[in-house]
Write a structure and sequence with these properties.
Number of strands: 26
Helix content: 55-70%
Strand content: 5-15%
Radius of gyration: 62 Å
Number of helices: 58
Low-confidence stretches: 597-632, 1105-1153, 1231-1239, 1279-1346, 1481-1508, 1683-1693
Oligomer: single chain
Strand order of the largest sheet: 6-7-21-8-17-11-12
Mean pLDDT: 77
Largest sheet: 7 strands, mixed
Shape: extended
Length: 1892
């Protein structure tokens, strides 16, 4: 022991130390512990270093922590160290980190309330736990329920599930889920929906017995024990409920933040309903009894909806509306009674106001008088021996009496409801066993504890004692089973505490005694308690500061009880006069029932309470009640003690299962864990006691194989022996010195607490040392490999480097020499090139310089020349300007002087002018003057010319000056022109020239300005252009970007559209598949209902006592079921339901209602079918009327058709005669010796003619039938015509002509038929005729004004006579033709009979004689025809007869020769066959003799050759139909047919029979054959539906039959792949599309049954083969399992492996292939199977924490790869089966990937696309390391995953639907088998079928 302690308490070891806040804290040792140390040096998880001092007396070391691999285990007993901190930590890790609320603790299921709705209670979870062992799945309430259910069925012992815990811990919900599990798994024994009734009792009991408390919103304020009864097939048949200690005080008082019972608030919330107006209710705040807690509303709860649920539950349990309203009246009356105000009259009396509205409402609701009730609410009656007194009550006493009455009424109402719920749940079926569910209050302790807490804790003491005894018993049984020595384990026995309470002179006895005392009080009772128990019992204590309280030391804790109110609550007294007033109520029947004796109460359902055949193992006291007076004397404590005793007797007689509910915190926070509160409840509920009992013994248990597998690493090679048990013993003796630490059992090794941790540490150290050694070796090997690689690489590098350097040196030398040469020539070249460059540059520079100097000189000369010219011009211009100015000045002076002189002369001339002489002189002078002036003018003209010349020169000089002076030149020209005209304007020209110069200067300035502006503008424009270019570039870039963006967007849009189209296509496919699945589910539901209907009929037939001969049974019904068609199935079901109405009268009411509902639905369907039939009949009548109207037109066509038919017959006759003549010519034409031999042309012609004659006979038969039908129709037409000729009928027909068109046609027809010359009058108009015919009687005179009526009458008479004559003529003609056709028909019949007789005779003859007989028959036929021909032409016939006779003789001779040749060939063939046999040739199959073999070549000559002409039909008689169905379907063995015959042979035979019925146009035969086939297939599948071969065989044949119906339907879509011969075999008379749909539905049902059959076979193999079995040995590790496997529900039948699954898949595949199943259908079956394998494996993985590890992920991936390899081998990789395994593959990958960083989270999210978020989180939460080297998944990482997957839109469902079946399709698969070649084997016993 010291060695182990020193080994365990070393540095880095982790321990638990006590803590005030967290109860226990984890710490780690800093240094090793040495024996004798007084303290431990520890460091906490937050890094704080502390010194933990040990107790100097005990020296107890702190508790060690379990290894990390054991933390989070499903079973607390699997922990190595079993102590309080380990249990608390394990529960916390599972609850907080893994979100797991259930944990096993040995036989106890610990359930922690999550205060959150979890998706772990669905039907899929129930199905997953159904049938599983308790230890195989994760802990769950369903696992406990399944264990109880299976133990009940296996051990045939009643079971109990005890659910306990504090208020708010989830007891009621746990019990509810357990009952839901039983209702779902077991079903019910009848259609009475008992399981629904059992579940419906929950909302009722919650409404009247649950209330909101400070700890729980739906706290049960009573205890209940529900017994769920089962029959011998373990189906629910009923239930019974017992209640305990209802908290009546809650009716009249509630603490803060609490509520009264839910039903009161539900009524108040629904007060506005019309049916509740009479209750006079309002809101809950208006009533005293519902407003005291000041919390009338519960968040998230709608009380009005809850009332609807409650009422629905009442209805379901058979409590009708009147009783429900009565219950609600009583409850409303209680509320009104609480509001009755009692006033104080004086100190000792009280009164109620006369018109108190609440009391008035109370009295009206309960039907009592106001006066009586107000009287006895304030008074009470005291009785003595002689007199009776009425004593007034004080206000307080009256109020208490009122509240007591309210409590009493509610208690009675509660008991009445429980009683009638039990009556509704009782059944007449005998109960075989039951499972009880006990939902009872847990241990309670409050600040103030009263009588209720005392009773609750008393009940828990009893339950704890029973629990301890049961745990101890199991431990003892386990030790005895393993045959190991054991000692009595010391455990806490609470019998002294129970004795303190219930023993004689115990607390309850003293309380009852005090209640009987007249002046008994709580104080006196307390003193009695002190005096009796204070000194005698150590468990009883007295508080120091109180004399009115006492303390009891319970098993969980000390509880102090206040004595106030104990006596009053124990008495539970009520004023008897108040009860009498209520009993006197005659208006309210329910109130009377509440206060009557139990046996007098009536059931609200109208049924008498029955015993129900219940059998109980527990011993119960007599239930007969005493009188009411004695009942009132019975105290509450006594009643509770008796009921508790009954409960304990019941529990002791059953096998208990324990569920302990834990409340994690007091604030109702989701997944919040308070260690203090949890430890309190763990101590109180007995979990820690279980741990202590387990730890006191050997809690850890391993099988020898598990121990060997786990600790193989601790063994040496020499320790391993063939005997595993002996090996384990040797190893343990070596590893553990103290032999008391373990014990060896028969199959297990038992360890003390802590030993597994010790072994795990040894194993971990060994593995760590091995890992270090492996690492050392690997690192050494890697380092050496690295060094060798480096050394080799260095040598290689050196070698290559030196070689490279040598090569570089040689290359350098060569390059140096070459470089010298190159440099020489290069330098020469460079210098030469440089010289030439310089020379060329010098020459170029010289050239340029010289050219530049020449240009400069030239420019200078040019400038000088131009300057000289300019100077010349300027100087000339200046000289001319000076000259002009001088000249102008001179001229001006001359003008002035001359003017002055002229003036003077003018004066003189004026004087002289006055005389004639003067005038003469003047004239002379004027002439001279004129001449002078003329000369002057000429001179001036010359001057002007000179001036003009000068001006021209000036103009030329101005023109040379430049084009810029154009405007000036133009003005100067104008001036010059003016100057030529007027010389005096030169000055003005000079002034203008000055102006021009100024303008020139201004223009030049403006030009400069413009040039500057232009330069600025140019720069701005260039800048703008550059900016525009930049902008253009950016725009181009943006354009390119936009184009690229547009392309990307277009590409994205294209991809988006493609994805959208793909998604839409996928959605459409999904919708189609869903629709198919929905349709196929409806078909399966329909099939299930049909089977249930058949079962019910059989059960009713068995239960009925009617003699078989008086009534038709199911057997007679089934024998005639072929007479019904598919369309009449609903009628059959309806008739069957009507026929069984008398039988089902004794059945359950709900079953009757259900059948009536089904009958109503069937009647509606029948009515709809009738309506549709009537519509069809109306349409048929209308069509028939139209046909009758068209009869007259069709009559002529029929006559033409008949004449054409006669012509065809004549032509056929001529053709036959022509063939006969051809045969004669062939017989006469060829007279060779071998011409008549078989195979010769003549012989072939004879055979062809014989076949043609047979075919002709068949054709004649058909024609005769057609002619007969035509004759019959003609007779009916003639009869119809005769009736039409009568006047009355004609008048009716005229009246029927409502339409103008019809009347017009009749009138025109009348005109055409009237050929008499008298009717020459023009016809009337249609309108006139219509109006006249339809006019009333007074208009007859107007109609007959011009004799038109007479004309019409005469025309009609003439028409009638004409029609009668034609009718008589046609009748005679038809009679003659009929007689002739009858004669022909008779001849044909005789010929046919003769042919059949001859054919039968020929078939009976041997093969050698058949040819001769056929020839003789042909000769006879020809002879008869010749005789007929001879009668017509005697001469020609005589000649032909002679020729034919001669030819016949020749043919006979040739026939004899051929026979002799055949005999010779036979002999030779025998010789050859003998020789072949002697040479060792292979013998033929079946040991056929050579003589039999040689006969085969003869057959093609005669009968066997006729097989080529078979039509692929099988003929059978109508009476043989049942024999056909029986031999071909019902009694057929699939195995023999599948192995020896062609696949689908039954389908081909059925279709060939159907073809013959279609060929005969026999509608009834087609219908009965198809209906019989469908019903027989259903019958054989119902009988042998569990046989895979049978189901597969008929699935293949049904599909083949369906494909044949399609292939030969005549539809072009199905005829594409047919041969010409197959197209000739198509159906000709019936369209069987409706039957194809029916057969398709049948194939779907068979497919679903096949899948279920295969699933039932594979289901036991999947989990074991895919998960549990180690395909790769040594990968998975075995962990301690605790007591999970303690109660295995089934015996070990062997372990399935993956090879088992593959073998079964191979068997499935081979059988389906043998049966000829379509390949596409096989793919669908395989896909469905793989889905089931993947779904079942994944679901078990999600519900098993021990399977979620890295090694298990590797195992799963390997198993999946093996399944994929199987698919690849079978060529099924494209069937979609692999995709169905994708969720399982991703789950396995999830187990193996790294789970630490955000990158890992991103990878997981992208990888696990097929898994839902719930599944991913579940796997991560369940991930469990098998070895210490693995790490757990952190909570932060899981939160990261949840955050990343938050946006996923997916179903919250956790498990995959294993019941989901993919919708099946049957692709058309045409057959290549020719129907005419199919042979029917004799083994099928179908000799009555004839091939046609």
């Amino acid at each position: 022991m010291n060695r182990e302690l020193e080994y365990m308490f070393v540095q880095c070891a982790r321990v638990w130390i006590p803590d005030a806040e967290d109860v226990w804290k984890s710490a780690e040792l800093i240094k090793d512990y040495k024996n004798g140390d007084a303290s431990l040096q520890l460091t906490l998880e937050d890094g704080t270093n502390i010194e933990h001092k040990l107790d100097p007396k005990t020296k107890n070391l702190p508790h060690l922590r379990n290894p990390d691999i054991l933390v989070g285990e499903n079973d607390l007993t699997a922990l190595s160290y079993l102590h309080e901190p380990a249990v608390l930590h394990n529960l916390k890790v599972r609850f907080i980190d893994s979100k797991l609320i259930y944990t096993y603790c040995g036989i106890v299921l610990v359930a922690i309330n999550p205060y959150e709705t979890l998706p772990i209670y669905g039907t899929d979870i129930i199905n997953a736990y159904s049938g599983q062992n308790m230890g195989d799945m994760d802990p769950h309430i369903f696992a406990v329920a399944e264990e109880a259910y299976k133990q009940m069925a296996r051990d045939e012992r009643n079971q109990s599930i005890i659910v306990s815990g504090e208020s708010g811990a989830g007891k009621t919900v746990s019990a509810k889920y357990a009952m839901r599990y039983f209702a779902t798994v077991s079903g019910s024994a009848s259609e009475a929906n008992v399981e629904e009734k059992v579940l419906a009792s929950n909302p009722i009991m919650e409404a009247i017995g649950n209330a909101k408390t400070t700890r729980n919103d739906n706290s049960s304020r009573f205890g209940k024990y529900i017994e769920i009864g089962f029959d011998n097939r373990y189906r629910i048949i009923g239930a019974n409920m017992r209640t305990y200690l209802l908290e009546k005080s809650r009716v009249v008082f509630q603490a803060d933040e609490e509520r009264n019972y839910h039903i009161f608030y539900q009524l108040c919330a629904s007060a506005k309903l019309p049916e509740f107006k009479n209750l006079r209710l309002s809101t809950a705040n208006d009533f005293l009894y519902t407003r005291q807690g000041r919390s009338p509303v519960i968040d998230g709860v709608d009380d009005s909806k809850e009332l609807c649920t409650t009422r629905h539950a009442f209805t379901l349990l058979g409590i009708n509306e009147s009783y429900q309203m009565g219950l609600f009246q009583v409850l409303a009356a209680i509320l009104h009674l609480g509001n009755v105000e009692i006033k104080e009259k004086d100190s000792d009396s009280s009164l109620i106001a006369p018109n108190n509205r609440h009391l008035t409402a109370f009295c009206e609701l309960v039907g009592v008088t106001y006066k009586d009730m107000s009287q006895w609410l304030c008074h009470r009656k005291l009785k003595t021996a002689t007199e009776t007194y009425i004593k007034p009550l004080s206000r307080l006493q009256a109020t208490n009496a009122r509240d007591a009455l309210s409590k009493h009424i509610y208690a009675k109402l509660f008991s009445w409801i429980v009683e009638h719920v039990n009556k509704a749940l009782v059944t007449s079926i005998k109960q075989h066993s039951f499972i009880g569910v006990l939902d009872i209050y847990g241990f309670e302790t409050f600040e103030i504890n009263s009588f209720e807490q005392f009773c609750i804790n008393y009940a828990n003491e009893k339950l704890q004692q029973q629990f301890n005894m049961h745990v101890f018993k199991l431990e003892q049984e386990e030790y005895m089973k393993e045959q190991i020595p054991w000692t009595l384990i010391d455990f806490y026995d609470n019998q002294p505490c129970i004795n303190l309470i219930e023993a004689k002179m115990g607390i309850l006895d003293l309380l009852d005694e005090e209640c009987k005392m007249p002046k008994g009080s709580d104080d006196s009772w307390a003193q009695k308690l002190y005096n009796t128990h204070l000194k005698t019992c150590c468990l009883f204590e007295k508080p120091r500061m109180s004399n009115r309280a006492f303390i009891i030391q319970h098993f969980a804790d000390k509880v102090e009880y206040q004595c106030d109110g104990f006596l009053e609550k124990n008495k539970d007294t009520v004023n008897e006069e108040q009860i009498n007033v209520l009993k006197a109520s005659k208006k309210f029947h329910l109130l009377m029932e509440l206060f009557q004796d139990e046996e007098k109460a009536t059931s609200p359902t109208g049924q008498a309470p029955g015993t129900g055949g219940r059998t109980r193992l527990s011993i119960k006291p007599d239930k007969s009640r005493e009188t009411s007076s004695k009942e009132h004397k019975k105290t509450v404590g006594c009643q509770f003690r008796n009921s508790l005793q009954m409960l304990m007797e019941t529990l002791n007689a059953t096998t208990p299962h324990y569920v302990r509910c834990i409340k994690p915190n007091d604030f109702k926070l989701a997944f919040s864990f308070d260690p203090k509160r949890a430890v309190q409840q763990l101590r109180a509920c007995g979990v820690l006691e279980t741990i202590r009992i387990s730890a006191a013994g050997f809690p850890s248990r391993w099988t020898y194989q598990e121990f060997f597998s786990r600790y193989r690493v601790l063994m040496k090679q020499k320790d391993v022996l063939p005997d595993k048990k002996l090996t384990c013993k040797h190893v343990l003796e070596r590893l553990v010195e103290d032999q008391d630490k373990y014990q060896f059992g028969k199959t297990k090794i038992f360890f003390r607490a802590g030993q597994v941790a010790y072994l795990e540490k040894l194993r971990a150290d060994k593995l760590r040392a091995a890992c270090i050694r492996i690492q050392k070796t690997i690192r050494c090997w890697l380092a050496r490999k690295k060094y060798l690689r480096k050394r080799s690489a260095a040598i290689t590098i050196q070698r290559f480097t030196r070689g490279y350097q040598a090569r570089c040196l040689a290359k350098f030398m060569r390059l140096t020499q070459a470089a010298t040469v190159i440099q020489k020539y290069q330098r020469m070249y460079v210098e030469k090139k440089r010289y030439r460059k310089k020379q060329a540059a010098a020459l170029a520079m010289q050239t340029i310089l010289r050219a530049y100097m020449a240009r400069q000189k030239y420019q200078a000369l040019l400038r000088e020349h131009k300057a000289v010219i300019i100077q010349k011009r300027i100087r000339g211009w200046l000289a001319r300007c000076w000259y002009k100015r001088c000249l102008e000045a001179i001229v001006y002076l001359q003008c002035c002087i001359r003017r002055m002189r002229a003036k003077r002369e003018l004066k003189k001339l004026k004087i002289e002018a006055r005389s004639v002489e003067h005038f003469k002189k003047l004239n002379k002078g004027m002439e001279n003057k004129i001449m002078q002036l003329q000369r002057k003018i000429d001179e001036q003209n010359k001057d002007n010319r000179l001036i003009s010349e000068k001006l021209v020169g000036l103009e030329s000089s101005y023109a040379v000056e430049g084009e810029r002076m154009r405007s000036e030149l133009s003005q100067l020209r104008g001036v010059e022109e003016d100057a030529r005209n007027k010389a005096i304007q030169v000055s003005s020209l000079l002034e203008e020239l000055e102006k021009l110069r100024k303008e020139l200067s201004v223009t030049q300035q403006e030009k400069k300005t413009l040039e500057e502006w232009a330069q600025t503008y140019r720069s701005e424009m260039e800048k703008m252009v550059s900016e525009l270019k930049d902008q253009n570039g950016s725009l181009k870039k943006e354009k390119d970007d936009l184009n690229r963006l547009i392309q990307e967007q277009s590409q994205q849009m294209t991809e988006k559209m493609t994805r959208a189209i793909a998604e839409e296509t996928h959605q459409l496919e999904t919708d189609l598949n869903e629709e198919r699945s929905r349709y196929q589910n409806l078909l399966s539901e329909h099939l299930r209902l049909e089977e249930k209907y058949d079962d019910l009929k059989e059960e009713m037939a068995r239960s009925s006592n009617i003699k078989p001969g008086h009534r038709r049974t199911d057997s007679t019904h089934s024998s005639n079921e072929s007479e019904y068609t598919y369309n009449s199935e609903y009628t059959e079901m309806e008739e069957g339901s009507r026929a069984g109405d008398d039988v089902t009268r004794g059945m359950d009411t709900s079953l009757t209602l259900k059948l009536q509902k089904r009958v109503t639905e069937l009647e509606q369907e029948k009515q709809s079918l009738r309506d549709e039939l009537e519509n069809k009949e109306d349409q048929f009548q209308r069509a028939r009327a139209r046909d009758d109207a068209e009869f007259r037109k069709a009559r002529g066509a029929e006559l033409e058709y008949e004449s054409l038919k006669r012509q065809e017959l004549e032509s056929e006759n001529k053709k036959l005669r022509h063939d006969l003549a051809e045969m004669r010519r062939s017989l006469l034409g060829n007279t060779a010796a071998g011409a008549g031999a078989p195979g010769s042309p003549a012989y072939k012609v004879l055979l062809d003619q014989l076949n043609a004659s047979c075919e002709e006979l068949e054709v004649r038969k058909e024609e005769v039938l057609i002619l007969r039908s035509q004759l019959v129709s003609q007779k009916e037409a003639m009869h119809h015509k005769e009736t039409m000729t009568e006047p009355s009928v004609f008048a009716e027909d005229v009246n029927k002509l409502k339409d103008a068109d019809e009347l017009k046609q009749a009138y025109v027809g009348l005109k055409d038929t009237n050929r008499s010359p008298r009717f020459t009058r023009p016809p009337l108009e249609v309108g006139d005729l219509l109006s006249r015919l339809r006019s009333a009687a007074p208009d007859l005179h107007r109609l007959n004004e011009d004799g038109e009526l007479w004309l019409v009458n005469q025309g009609l008479k003439e028409t009638v006579r004409l029609l009668e004559h034609q009718l008589q003529t046609q009748r005679r003609t038809y009679e003659n033709e009929t007689e002739s056709l009858r004669g022909e028909l008779q001849n044909v019949k005789e010929e046919n009979n003769r042919q059949q007789q001859l054919l039968a005779q020929n078939l009976q003859l041997p093969p050698e004689a058949r040819i001769e007989a056929s020839l003789q028959h042909e000769i006879t036929r020809l002879t008869n025809e010749n005789l007929e021909f001879m009668a017509n032409d005697p001469a020609a016939s005589q000649e032909a007869r002679v020729i034919i006779l001669r030819r016949m003789v020749d043919l006979m001779e040739q026939l004899e020769k051929q026979d002799r040749t055949i005999r010779k060939l036979k002999k030779q063939l025998k010789v050859y066959s003998k020789r072949i046999g002697e040479m060792g040739a292979g013998q033929t199959e079946g040991q056929t003799s050579p003589g039999q073999m040689v006969e085969e070549p003869i057959h093609p000559v005669n009968i066997p050759r006729r097989e080529k002409d078979f039509q692929g039909m099988l003929e059978y008689k109508r009476e043989d139909e049942m024999k056909l169905v029986k031999n071909l379907i019902l009694e057929l063995k699939p195995r023999g047919v599948a192995v020896n015959l062609i696949p689908g042979l039954p389908a081909y035979i059925l279709f060939m029979c159907l073809r013959h019925a279609d060929y005969l146009n026999d509608d009834q035969k087609v219908r009965t054959l198809l209906t019989s086939t469908i019903n027989s297939i259903k019958k054989i599948l119902k009988k042998r539906g569990d046989d895979f071969e049978t189901v597969s065989f008929w699935l293949a044949n049904t599909c083949r039959f369906l494909h044949c119906l399609k292939q030969y339907s005549g539809d072009e879509a199905f005829m594409k792949h047919n041969t010409q011969r197959q197209n000739e075999h198509c159906l000709s008379n019936f369209d069987l599309a409706e039957y194809r749909q029916v057969i398709s539905d049948l194939a779907i049902q068979i497919y679903q049954q096949l899948i279920k059959c295969m699933e039932n076979i594979l289901q036991p193999m999947i989990v074991s083969g895919m998960l549990e079995h180690e395909t790769i040995q040594g990968v998975s590790g075995v962990k301690p399992t605790g007591l999970r496997k303690r109660t295995s529900s089934i015996a070990d039948e062997g372990t399935y492996t993956l090879d088992s699954i593959l073998r079964q898949l191979n068997a499935f595949h081979s059988i389906m292939c043998q049966h000829g199943t379509d390949p596409e259908l096989i793919k669908q079956v395989v896909k469905q199977l793989f889905y089931i394998i993947g779904a079942v494996t994944l679901n078990n993985l999600l519900l098993r924490k021990d399977m979620c590890s890295w090694s298990k992920g590797m195992q799963i991936r390997y198993n999946v790869s093996q399944l994929e390899e199987w698919l690849r081998d079978k060529g099924l990789m494209t069937c979609g089966a692999k995709e169905t395994l994708e969720p399982l593959i991703q789950a396995a990958q999830l187990l193996q990937v790294k789970k630490k960083t955000d990158e890992d989270a991103e990878a997981i999210c992208s990888m696990c696309q097929a898994l839902t978020t719930a599944q991913i989180v579940k796997v991560l939460n369940l991930y469990t390391p098998v070895n210490e080297f693995e790490e757990r998944v952190s909570v932060a990482f899981i939160r990261t995953i949840q955050t990343r997957l938050r946006d996923r839109c997916e179903s919250p469902q956790l498990l995959m639907d294993t019941k989901m079946i993919y919708p099946v399709t049957f692709p058309f698969s045409p057959s290549c088998v020719a129907l005419e070649t199919i042979q029917i084997p004799g083994s099928l016993n179908l000799a009555f079928l004839t091939r046609v």
